[in-house]
């Protein structure tokens, strides 16, 4: 099963201790204190006092000791009812699963049907049949809760049955019953245990409830429910008479609930983690250089010294700089975990809240994003379009495509419904979405994956942004659709002059579409080069070379279709050494590589590379 | 689940065609089929209540001291002397005419007893339902958002514990506490009986408190889940105001996922009325069923269970239709 932690959660511990105390009181109560509980005194309906902690009832009996003694009766009934529900429910559920398909369907339906009625009404029905009394209430509650156990067993067993070891046991000729008892039951026991403790809490409440209604124990016997009923009648004279049994029922329910919740946490460590608090540092004020640059041929987007940190302080992106000029298509390529998507999200100001970031300069189309107060939402929404990776999860499932497409226009461009609709339809047509009018009325799940991604591109295009950030726009798509979507992006770039920042792990995709490419590795830009140089394989950094050699699109031409996989894997943020992060995988590494991070050095061609060996070689050449 | 006519891609005109081509046709047909099955089940079970009584139900009714003649008369009145299938036929014919038999204790027709008592029960359940929804959806969303944004940490982390404790409080304890605080100590509201909206407040609250806590916690969890979805990142890229982001993109999804899981909580409110009517001495169907069970008034028990079951079926149907309206994916079974 899942990783079980050795330390018990505090919740479970408290619950278990409480439960132990309750069981102890249930066992010892009637033996030790029966006489005190039944002693009649002349002090009738007295409030709480030193002699009677919770006062006395209508016959002058001590409420506290009656509550204590009643523990056994209630706990016995609840245990019996839970046992019936668990045993019968689990058995039925398992039998339904192991039966043939017809019985299974019928059984599922019957369980669904029983679950759609309130348990107390089922319990009342059985009580009516069996006639009121202690035993019949136990049976009735057991039967009322058994569908829940049957349903859980059924679901769990089905999921277990599809696993390999059960199939293997079947193939080995193990009998049906034996498969259930030996292979299925042990694997579904923990969730059932949780349900049992929750079911016990509900049983205590329901047992007491039916008794409260006068359908269970009959005088002179008593339990918490009947004590509470009598307490309600004397509520004005002695509130303590109701308080005792009410508190007992609540504490018992709480103990069982704590055990149940504690078991859940104990078995599933993920349940306890909470997102870290977001800490955001404001960036340095822009320098004079940035301001002067913004005046002339301003880039559509520029970022300088962008660092992104996890809440624990580990840096994921180490001070990278990047510019995208008007009408340019820039690609960021790298393995997963290289920080390329984080960079894009930071540029769009959409980083998850728990990540902390800082930048000397972050500017999209003249909007200063380093200071959120200064970034007007309308300009951000209309001047920056984003194409997300997975079109199947990025559209809101509850809203029509049309609503989602026109939202930015309606909210930020203040367009009328009709205008926005017409524009959206024409954009859908432009992105080659078939029957655009129909798509506008449809919900995301009614579109195919490729269609959704085209609709997403149309959505990004709608407010005529200066820049589109496309984060792995083709990764979630079929190969046949991928080329189509890339062509579409290229077409948008040429016809509208929209700059595109394309994030991809696929160097083939990037080289087919982009003008300029940034290669990222472990949170740093290691090489920046023009697409011509990339296509000519005139690359400097050993990592870029390795990427080319490992990609089928780019390797086949010269290496005779021999793909060279890159050995090792990119380092995680926590095991990065002091030097170049690629050094451990680098065939050219020299001692200095593991000691000093190589700076990104610009070459006369406009390209740049961050590699000690390459920079030294270039110096020798010049 | 396959659907009948969901995949008609062509644009169609005309109401009749649209209805036939609408995914609603298949969805409603399946749901109504389910309702019919549940009704049949209810009718059979209520019919069998008397027949399943261990021993001789007539003897149980009249008691051990009564004479054989009296037992025979009661057996006849219960219609137990005929063969089972003929008894069932009589039962069905009666149901078709709205005849649910006659009460043993009052001699009144069960149907007229129900028409007097059921409105109160339904009103009580509806009041409780309104309280639950009005509390759970806004509060749960607010806590979920606050938690996800790391705000008010103490409040959000103690919320879970508070909700578990309140959620475990049964109606009869909640009712007792409410009576003590608001009726006996503060004297703001009537203790028991009375009429008008003030008499409804405490009973409805006593039913609603625990389910409201449970549902609030569910809404909080669903809100947190929705907020971490990709489509919320996409919506955030539209730089909408917080209100618009919440109302337009978060709440509809929270409501659908909450209803899917929380429909049973709403049905359970109906069970709560049985208890609350007894705590507050209200003359509803829930109070009567307890008396009927104690007095072994089988025709009344039959009638009340049948009608309460019917209401439960209706609530389920309403939840299903609401889900279909809010999330079209459930119509075609695209959402599991």
From TrEMBL, chain A:
Record InterPro entries? AAA+_ATPase, ABC_Ni/Peptide_Import, ABC_transporter-like_ATP-bd, ABC_transporter-like_CS, MetI-like, MetI-like_sf, Oligopep_ABC_C, P-loop_NTPase
ABC transmembrane type-1 domain residues are 71-260
Q: Name one GO molecular function term.
A: ATP hydrolysis activity
Q: How does it sit in the membrane?
A: Multi-pass membrane protein; Peripheral membrane protein
One GO BP annotation of this record: transmembrane transport
This protein's GO CC annotations = plasma membrane
SMART domains in the record: AAA
Which UniProt keywords are present, listed alphabetically? ATP-binding, Cell inner membrane, Cell membrane, Membrane, Nucleotide-binding, Translocase, Transmembrane, Transmembrane helix, Transport
Tell me the CDD domains matching this sequence. Answer: ABC_NikE_OppD_transporters, TM_PBP2
Report the transmembrane regions from the record.
12-33, 77-98, 110-129
Pfam families according to UniProt? ABC_tran (PF00005), BPD_transp_1 (PF00528), oligo_HPY (PF08352)
- Span of domain ABC transporter: 301-547
What is stated as this protein's family in its record?
Belongs to the ABC transporter superfamily.
Superkingdom, natural source: Bacteria
Give me the ranges of the annotated region Disordered. 268-298
Location relative to the cell: Cell membrane; Membrane
Q: What is this protein called?
A: Peptide ABC transporter ATP-binding protein
Source species of the chain: Actinoallomurus iriomotensis
Q: Which Gene3D superfamilies match?
A: MetI-like, P-loop containing nucleotide triphosphate hydrolases
TrEMBL record, chain B:
Superkingdom of this protein's organism: Bacteria
| Chain ranges of the ABC transmembrane type-1 domain | 118-323
Q: Which Pfam families match?
A: BPD_transp_1 (PF00528), BPD_transp_1_N (PF19300)
Membrane topology term reads: Multi-pass membrane protein
Residue intervals passing through the bilayer: 32-53, 124-146, 158-186, 198-219, 246-270, 304-326
Q: Which UniProt keywords apply?
A: Cell membrane, Membrane, Transmembrane, Transmembrane helix, Transport
| InterPro entries linked | BPD_transp_1_N, MetI-like, MetI-like_sf
**One of the record's GO cellular component terms:** plasma membrane
- Keyword Membrane carried by entry: yes
Q: Name one GO molecular function term.
A: dipeptide transmembrane transporter activity
Q: What broad class describes the main subcellular location of this protein? A: membrane
Record localization: Cell membrane
Q: Which family does it belong to?
A: Belongs to the binding-protein-dependent transport system permease family.
Tell me what this protein is called: Peptide ABC transporter permease
Q: Which organism is it from?
A: Actinoallomurus iriomotensis
